[in-house]
Amino acid sequence: MIKTFSKVKNRNRISNAYIVMSLLNEDRKLKHLFDGSDWNVYELKILNLGVGAPGTDLLQHCADIFRQATEHRLKIDNERNSSMLFQYGPTSGTYEARFQIAKYFSQMYKSEVKCEDLIVTSGATQGLHVILSTLVDLNGFIFVDEVTYMLALDSIKQFHTLTIIPIKLNNDGVDLDDLEEQLKENLFKTTKKEFWGMYYTIPTYHNPTGILFSSDTCKGLVKLARKYGILITCDDVYNILYYNDTKVPKRLFDYDNKSDKDYRGHIISNGSFSKILGPGVRLGWLELPKRMKKVLDSCGIINSGGCLNNYTSGIVASLFELGLAQTYIQRMYAAYKERMLATCAILEKELPESCKLVIPEGGYFIWITLDGNCCASEFLKFCMEEEQIFFIVGSRFAVASDKASNCLRLSIAFHSKEKLEDAARRFCLCLKKFLKK
């Protein structure tokens, strides 16, 4: 008995010690995604041109409109819906939320978006994860552009059994010949999932290059998807941020015409409010063909908790009902357009002639190719030392680590027009100095 008591006493001492240690272990108390890094976008000593997120001057308007929308939605919920806002939501999301999303984007795209084709998500990243885990054979293939959104690439890599194959990218979009060659070489019949392979891309104001896939490229993609039975997933998060004073570009989803005789549905549009309302809202949607929607509606990850963001989607529905979202998004659009045009004007004028600049017609990003012998990583070190300007090097967006090593991406989203103009001038002067080394 004495020995047993002694053991219990010792265990209690160890347990108490761990409790004390955990209490003494101070939390980092991070405030946002970029906090704690060497290139914190909120750190005034560093001018971060790498972050693809709206700045404080834009997001500060959210508090007021979300307060109004929350009061509106809670009043409705109390009077009509028996607190359904706080219940597990229907798997696709409530009709009210999907209707408002469909209505707004139908008007923006000048093309019908049907609410019955939508599934509410908590953002494009989750949308991609749900697609990969439910629709694609995990022993299959994921085809990506040779440079693509780096965090989507990180997400895909988490599915370790998938084989990732990079495809050449041209000025008007993916190289269709290269893609078809890879499809032929890797084609197999799956018995486990809807699709043996998937092509992931950002066809409208591509991340990181900023290019817009041409109509011919989009038509060719639909033909290849139908011919080889693959899924195409598009991150459609920049589509309404078009800056050339024409109409919004046609989405790849619309090229997969339901009236075609050979239509089965091969394309998913993966949308998000992160760029046009705020990343912290964590709300997005999938627009997808009926056969895929049926699979996702019944999958475990959605059925387990119902709608992936029921509460917030209700608030956002009120934002649109009250007209608050429309005004706010227009403000975001105007700011982004002003920033992109001003930044590109300076880069076009002052960038060294040996460098290539892709001037985008919309979106967030500017892609620069340095002289063939230049290393973007080395220039980043130099730029940080000389001007405290940060950007993301091209190789970060590639499957192969040696790809795009002389390229870099700049973002226009976070900083004011004046700050971006100053940054662009300093960036160009620093690059000229670096090239003379």
From TrEMBL:
Q: Which GO terms describe its molecular function?
A: 2-aminoadipate transaminase activity; pyridoxal phosphate binding
Gene3D superfamilies from the xrefs?
A: Aspartate Aminotransferase, domain 1 (3.90.1150.10), Type I PLP-dependent aspartate aminotransferase-like (Major domain) (3.40.640.10)
**Where does the Aminotransferase class I/classII large domain lie?**
46-427
What the entry lists under CDD domains is as follows: AAT_like
Instruction: Name the PANTHER family on file.
Output: AMINOTRANSFERASE, LD15494P
| Stated name of the protein | Aminotransferase class I/classII large domain-containing protein
Q: What is the species listed in this Swiss-Prot or TrEMBL entry?
A: Stomoxys calcitrans (Stable fly)
Traced from the root, the source organism's taxonomic lineage reads: Eukaryota, Metazoa, Ecdysozoa, Arthropoda, Hexapoda
Gene for this chain: 106085466
